[in-house]
Design goal:
The complex is a heterodimer of chains A (397) and B (119). With 397 residues, chain A is α/β, with parallel strands linked by helices. Helices cover 36% and strands 16% of the residues of chain A. The two termini of chain A are 47 Å apart. The chains are: A alpha/beta (397), B alpha+beta (119).
Amino acid sequence: MSAAPVKLPPLVEPASELTVDEVRRYSRHLIIPDVAMDGQKRLKNARVLCVGAGGLGSPALMYLAAAGVGTLGVIEFDTVDESNLQRQIIHGQSDIGRSKAQSARDSVREINPYVNVVLHEERLDSENVMEIFSQYDLIVDGTDNFATRYLVNDACVLLNKPYVWGSIYRFDGQAAVFWSEHGPCYRCLYPEPPPPGMVPSCAEGGVLGVLCGSIGAIQVTEAIKLLTGIGEPLVGRLMIYDALEMTYRTVKVRKDPECAVCGKNPTVTELIDYEAFCGAVSEEAIEAARDSTITPATLKQWIDAGENIQIIDVREPAEYQIVSIPGATLIPKNEFIMGDALSKLPQDKRVVLHCKSGVRSAEVLALVKAAGFSDAVHVGSGIVGWVNQIEPHKPIY
Amino acid sequence: MPTGPADQSEQSEQSEIRTGPTQKEPAAMAVTVRIPTILRTYTGGAAEVAVEGANLAAVIDALEAAYPGIRARVLDESGRLRRFVNVYVNDDDVRFTEGLATETKDGATLSIIPAVAGG
């Protein structure tokens, strides 16, 4: 076992000088001996890309801007939704409906007008990632899905860029710096993504808003350390934060000699199809949903006509509490996977499954059909579609 | 800067503090297992549970006996560790030690760390 690298040289050369205004602005950095004029000039010369301006991207962009990182890139294609504002603090009430990238740029400019903001208003994919990443010194990851995370990792390995990674769920956070030249990459830690439907997203499982700040702040701390060459980087270590217990722990992460992308005999030598690698919905679910997917309007007709159906809501109890379809019975998806939920289904009624947006219900549909409920269907657009089309006075989340 | 040995002692100190408040009187090979949020539905919300077992496979069997369903989240259909779940015995990833045969000494802390992608 090799000892973890404790010291890395600064990633960025210093800018030639700071203006008088900049000296005033960054004075609290300049009087820290480890940062000082040299470190601040390096930050000024630095080019950092933030993938996503959402939960993690918000605090990351704001603190990177305040710290005086000279060029900040933002990749984001989404628009601001009201349900984002509980945690995405770079956006505000008046930004609802606006481009997240443009909203983020405005906030950054308000925090620090000396930052040059570069917007990439597109979805990151295998086609554009190399060209975009090559313009930056370091990548901060604030995405919300496995496919993009593997894409970012592989591009960073191929371009030899440090990848400052963070991930959150409910009350748990994880952070690490992946840099294959000096330590492990993301695939060394997690060689394969979970199968579709096994790990809920924040949209399905929820996230404590302030957790974004806790983990985003760690990411920015690590970015600043790498750019300026101070301290011991979070390379070869995984930081695990538990907000409920209020514990931070680090565990060793080893470089895997068998790693598919950064190992001795890599099998991934160019970018792959990450959507296929990670999959949003399993093959079984796609197959089950084919010809067995109904619209909210059809469900409404069936209810009004008194059809012999049983509506089963496969979401979690907390979601059911927020909003539900009249007459629906709650049986969370996990009870189908692990428990005896199949025995609770009526044999003499047609089963209609739904969840929030149709992913979980498709997974359950596959199980239910395999168990012999051949006429079962699911609502493709879930309760979100139901509320939008049938009961618009009810909340969505 | 000293690294390895200092980290080790700090880690074992921490484990001792953590195993303190668990209810069970430490019997043979009592292991503290830290449960991530995502799997706490199986443990009635408990973040940390105490089970017995001389190696990782035995600990997972004991976990399954106490909290049915949890094994399938850690092991795949053929009984291998899932590739998106990391299990640490104290500070070591078992993928780089003996895998399921990794020894779990009395007082060891076992951490289950699943991949999450939220952001």
